[in-house]
Amino acid sequence: MSYLRTIRTIGHTSAFARHPHRTVVGRSTITRGHFQVVSQRHFSYEATVAGFWQTLSQSAPVAYVQQGMINLHDLTGLPWWATVILTTVGLRTLVTLPLAVYQNKILARLEQISLEMPELIKELKAETAYAMKKFNWTEKEARIMYNHSLKKQWNNLIVRENCHPAKTMVLLWGQIPLWIVQSVAIRNLVSMLPDPTAIEAQIAYTELTLGGFGWIPNLTELDHSLIFPVALGVINLSIIEIQAASRTKLPSKLQTIFTNLFRGLSILMVPIAASVPSCLCLYWVTSSAYGLGQNLLLLSPRVRRTVGIPAVPSELTHPYQHIRSTFAARLGALSGRLGPNNQHPPPSTKA
InterPro entries, per this entry (predicted)? Predict the structure, then answer.
């Protein structure tokens, strides 16, 4: 037996030495003596998705949130619908609210340093014109040095105020992972994962079937009334429209594209929410409602000063009146297009 193992090892080594790079995508060929072994590697999309979902559902963050919801439910004695709402509000207050305040601070600092740029640009242009005469620079050389100096000055201001533009996305970096983790944790409770045989998972599932309210007494079933899915779409659209109405400048082409994209995603979430258990839909509605209130709260100048967001020229003095008048103007324009005054008059009957 040891002799055969030695022969196989020598044959494999010599074959690899003769054909060290003999591989084909999706298929591997190995020559052993006079035999050729061909192995086919198959890629399964379903298996990949299932493996990713299993890894995510068994991850430590999901386990912590899932166990935290169970402990909160057992400690407070609240029904599961109230536990979901309380957990959502608590996590968003601890995670996303501070990130939203910090993001607004970064945006305000960027706007403040942008106000210093016109004076710096004026000085750089004067220095560049002087250098062109003194050092006989060409126009191309002067433009290169000017752009280099301008970028350096801008970077110095960013370092001074500690407001790198990448930090304007800090809210998404916290909000999206939190949304995914809590969604998977609630889905685990409904599916009795990661261990369906565990008595604690079976108890939590049973309590979910009895822990609803009103039109959704069973939180493991769909919301057949579509109240929550439609509410989710309305709230998400309201967030987008309020953000668009609170702008004091005309939106750029990129901002318009993203606004329309998020509008489409908000509408797309309605049928998705209608196809998931009502406890998960309840979480999504609660999270979006919290986001709507958070955005409205951080529009107030008094609140912004309280949390340390500096005043900037683009800040609205009376934001709620501005949003109300903007929506009224949009509704007036829409009703004007659809109203009877916009219709063509009937043809005259006079001879």
Answer: YidC/ALB3/OXA1/COX18, YidC/Oxa/ALB_C
Sign for the CA dihedral angle at 93, 204, 280, 282 comes to: negative
Exposure string over 199-210, b if 16+ CB within 10 A, otherwise e:
eebeebbebbee
Please report where in the chains the tokens 């210093």 appear, as a residue.
116
- Spell out the residues 6+ positions from residue 304 whose beta carbon is closer than 8 angstroms to its own: 104, 298, 311, 315
pLDDT mean over 199-207 = 95
Higher pLDDT, 297 or 250: 297
Helix axes 199-210, 170-191, angle to 10 degrees: 100
DSSP-derived pairing of the beta strands 35-40 and 27-32: antiparallel
Evaluate whether 292 touches 242 at the Cβ level (below 8 Å): yes
The angle subtended at Cα 273 by Cα 270 and Cα 279, nearest 5°, is 145
Q: How far is CA 270 from the centre of its chain?
A: 17
Report how far residue 248's alpha carbon sits from residue 267's, in angstroms, rounded to the nearest whole number: 26
SS3 303: helix
Mean pLDDT of the chain: 86
Tokens 């970077």 sit on residue: 155
Confidence of residue 213 (pLDDT cuts 50, 70, 90): very high
At 223-268, the pLDDT tens digits run 999 999 999 999 999 999 999 998 888 888 888 999 999 999 999 9
The residues that bridge with 35 in the sheet, in sequence order, are 32
Quote the CA–CA distance of 47 and 304 in Å, as a whole number: 49
First to last CA, the chain: 115
Would you state the pLDDT for residue 339? Answer: 64
Task: Give the amino acid at 177.
Answer: P
Q: What is the largest CA-CA distance in the chain?
A: 116
**Three-state DSSP string of 173-214:** HHHHHHHHHHHHHHHHHHHCCCCCCCHHHHHHHHHHHHCCEC
Give pLDDT, residue 49: 75
